[in-house]
Amino acid sequence: MANPVALEITESHEALVGEVTVRRALPRHDRRTIGAWCFADHMGPVAVTEERGLDIGPHPHTGLQTVTWLLEGEELHRDSLGTEQLIQPGQLNLMTAGNGVAHAEEATGRYQGSLQGIQLWIAQPEATRHGPAAFEHHRELPQVDLGIGEATVLVGSYAGATSPARHDTELVGVDLSVQGSTTLELEPSFEYGLVVLVGAVELGGGRLTPGHLGYLAPGRAELGLLADGGTRALLLGGPPFDEKIMMWWNFVARSRLEFEEAARSWETDDGRFGQVGSTLARLASPPLQGEHPQRGAS
After folding, report:
1. Which residue, 14, 77, 145, 296, shows the most beta carbons closer than 10 Å to its own?
2. 65, 66, 70, 71: CA torsion to nearest 10
3. Element housing 135 (H / E)
4. Residue 209: how many CB atoms within 10 A of its CB?
5. DSSP strand E in 148-257: where?
6. Measured between alpha carbons, how far is residue 46 from residues 10, 66, 272 in Å?
7. What CA–CA distance (Å, rounded) separates 41 from 23?
8. What integer is the mean pLDDT of 105-115?
9. b/e per residue, 254-290, with b = 16+ CB within 10 A?
10. Where do the domains of the chain lie?
11. Is the pLDDT of residue 42 over 90?
């Protein structure tokens, strides 16, 4: 096997989502996806109160799955399927948009303190992206002992452990809570991205800190890393996604026409996205400009 490509490090850019500034690691102009993963927002740490949190009002999604994972704090999810779900650290929210769903992310009415976590998007393949919306919440996820810490499998399979969460393509998402030196098992056919949330890691000839994305091309069976004390990081991977996607606002699609139709459905409230039982203001779609503008809500 040829020597694998070295670690590529890119800087995240800041964006305002609701009331919170996030570090957006993915997508980048030169890298739209890692496997089917197409979006990664590291939020916080930020102080929230019982009545003031992310405060992201009802907004629509199509063609993707949202994966929400908290390191600290609590958040309340409401959606147009009728779901009202509190999420806490160690638990996973996964919402499938399919042809259309809407949701809001709110203060819990009971938690005050620090909030930190990450929201990820997974692009749905052609086979499922026009299907029905769905939501699932997992209070417990499988863990793998790494010797210097543990790996929690959010989506897919890793080191013999398999998450119960739905996935429409082959992929993996793992939370690493580590301190010291270890070697991670990798699937050679996968490309990988590493997003450090807390602490720092040295790997592949580079050092990763919060606010950066480390990318590894396919071809590696393992990866050695050295983690600072108390490091938390997300390892995301999958086979290179073979469908060309377009992203605008909160939609993943294949054409500009799909964006126009989704925005029209949202603005006319024609029933495609349903209703969300939230007291927060419903977000308006921004003007559609260019072929690949970036999204603005969550």
Report:
1. 77
2. 70
3. strand 134-138
4. 13
5. 149-155, 157-158, 161-162, 172-185, 191-198, 201-203, 206-208, 212-216, 222-238, 246-248, 251-253
6. 24, 21, 34
7. 6
8. 96
9. eeeebbeebbebbeeeeebbbebebebeebebeeeee
10. 8-238
11. yes
Assess whether pLDDT exceeds 80 at residue 4: no
Type of residue numbered 81: L
**At residue 177, does pLDDT exceed 50?**
yes
Measured from the Cβ of residue 64, the count of other Cβ atoms closer than 10 Å reads 26
pTM for the full predicted model: 0.94
| Angstrom distance (rounded) from CA 166 to CA 290 | 33
User: What is the per-residue pLDDT across 178-226, written as a single tens digit (0 to 9) for each?
Assistant: 999 999 999 999 999 999 999 999 997 789 999 999 999 999 999 999 9
**CB burial class (10 A; 0-12, 13-18, 19+) of residue 230?**
exposed
Whether 60 contacts 266, CB under 8 Å: yes
For 173, left (φ over 0), alpha (ψ -120 to 50), or beta? beta
Amino acid identity of 9? I
Tokens 């499988």 found at: 142
Q: Residue holding tokens 């800041």?
A: 14
- Residue 3: what pLDDT? 47
pLDDT at 88 over 60: yes
Structure confidence at residue 95 (pLDDT): 98
Q: Which residues of 210-222 are buried (b: 16+ CB within 10 A; e: fewer)?
A: bebbbbbebebee
pLDDT tops 60 at residue 90: yes
